[in-house]
Amino acid sequence: MEQIGKQVKLPLGRALQIAVQGIRIRFGRSLVTVSGVVLGVAFFMSNVTSQLIKQAIADEREQRQTLNLMLTLMKSEIGDLSGKTVALATFGETTVSERDLLAVLRKTPGLTLGAPEALGGKAHLLLVLGAGPATASPDILTAGMAQPVLLDSLAERAYPSAKPGSSLAQVRRELFFGRESEEQADKLKTQAEQATFRTLWIGIISILVTIIGIANALLMSVTERFREIGTMKCLGAMSAFIRKLFLIESAMLGFAGAVIGTALGTLLSFAGYGLTFGFGLITAALNVGGLLVAAAACIAGGTVLSMLAAIYPANFAARMVPASALRTNV
Amino acid sequence: MDNDLQQLLNDGATAEKSGYVIRAVDVKRVYRNGEVETHALRGASLDVKRAEYLSIMGPSGSGKTTFFNMIGGLDRPSSGKVYIDQVDIAQLDPYELAWLRCRKVGYIFQSFNLIQVMSCIENVMLPMSFAGVSGEDARDKAMDILERVGLADRALHKPSEMSGGQQQRVAVARALANSPDIVLADEPTANLDLKTGEEIIELFWKLRSDLGVTIITATHDLKMLKRSDRIVWIEDGRISKISTPDEMQIQIEEVH
Ligand SMILES: Nc1ncnc2c1ncn2[C@@H]1O[C@H](COP(=O)(O)OP(=O)(O)O)[C@@H](O)[C@H]1O
Ligand SMILES: [Mg+2]
Questions:
Q1: Predicted structure pTM score
Q2: A233: which residues sit within 8 A by CB, 6+ positions away?
Q3: Does B78 contact A at CB distance below 8 Å?
Q4: pLDDT digits (tens, 9 = 90+) for A300-321
């Protein structure tokens, strides 16, 4: 006579195998579950991408505006730029707009650019760029210029040994390169705060939508299989095995859904904004690093959320008495 | 456990009752559905001998399926005890209970309960995989069993592509997957045509006489009743009568 033994614990690999088989066989139904995850994650990811694109558009616009302002000011001082000579002094780091300006100047036909010393006073205009403090006095920089015109990208830059009342001080021009007045700065700041608040809200709401979508999809996929779970338990499956089966399944479906959802959300955002504003504008200043981080977070988050959402129904199913699981008709 | 030790244990503990593979002692089962209480079993006691072929008869709703669930370890009694091989199954831990369901008992459910998404052979292989057997060995054995129930050519079909009778035979094959000591069959021939019905009865008969498998079936099938050692009558949650096929024959003749 055989005594009662202990059931073997099936290795994780076996659960994985059965889970994969289940997904493959139930492909249509699995797709429905996946699409629940896709929808949630895509909604979240498209919001994140939209924020990043909006930021990129704003940055790019600001840069283009600043560039245009600088060019206009230069032209208003010395007229058409072709055939002119511009002396260039750079102190410290230059901004993106300043670099853009230099690129435009270098491409302007007939315009000569050079260091003040090298040009020996033949320049029509002295352009001072950079964010650092000036290390040479304007007298030296404009030495020899017949009609000294100085354009400075920094309004508040202090020049060493600039004599007040000197002829140079009178011709000095100041650009407001991205350096807004206090009032402007305040306005921008409240706008930015409002935007952050909006982003936060949209973020919270889309996380909720995502969680509900995923939880619902997985809850459905477990409850409609109570009978199957009951049968498996009658045939000798351990509760832990049932639990493992569903967690593996939900992790895989969640991962697939999160990847597709992330791609879909990103693409939709890009398509929407790209078709409205042009792909050049939205990609020029795009924070690619931020986008990648968001995508990775979405994929990881979607997978983990799917597993979390499956824990409750999987536990419930695993603990069911086989006989009553068999009687359920969903 | 090695055989000598097992022998020793069995000899010691089972000197008197060793013949009984299943003992149900005053088993009651009450289903509570909110306010409604259903007394599905009102105290059923039954001793089943090893290698016995037992038929259970009773009108629909009398508690046959509930009784099967109790003696098969699929549900817990509200009160009373069930012993399988002298072990009170209420004392078993989850591992032992799963082992029992997996290897000791083969179930044939009234509604088949095949896994719809799995093919016929995968259904038969499922209990094997829970027992830790997989791969070619499992496939070969599953194929063997399917051949015995006459479904070898349908091995790769899904349950939905089969007739009720064929599904029932898959359920029989699945119940035999891990060579159980006990087969619990809830109306196994109800959906079968005459010929396959007889084949299943023959198969059970062989299992019982060749391998000493204990067979318990709920049935109304006269042929099955005639082949059984004892017939247990359940009425309204109680065992009302236990008779032999000969006695029953007489009763039927009396009625006609
Ligand atoms: N899970 C359950 N919940 C409530 N009532 C049940 C449940 N299972 C069975 N019953 C009831 O218990 C009684 C016996 O059922 P059952 O054992 O299935 O009878 P049989 O198999 O003889 O037809 C019936 O009245 C049935 O409705
Ligand atoms: Mg029944």
A1: 0.73
A2: A239, A242, A320, A322, A325, B98, B101
A3: no
A4: 998 998 888 888 888 888 888 8
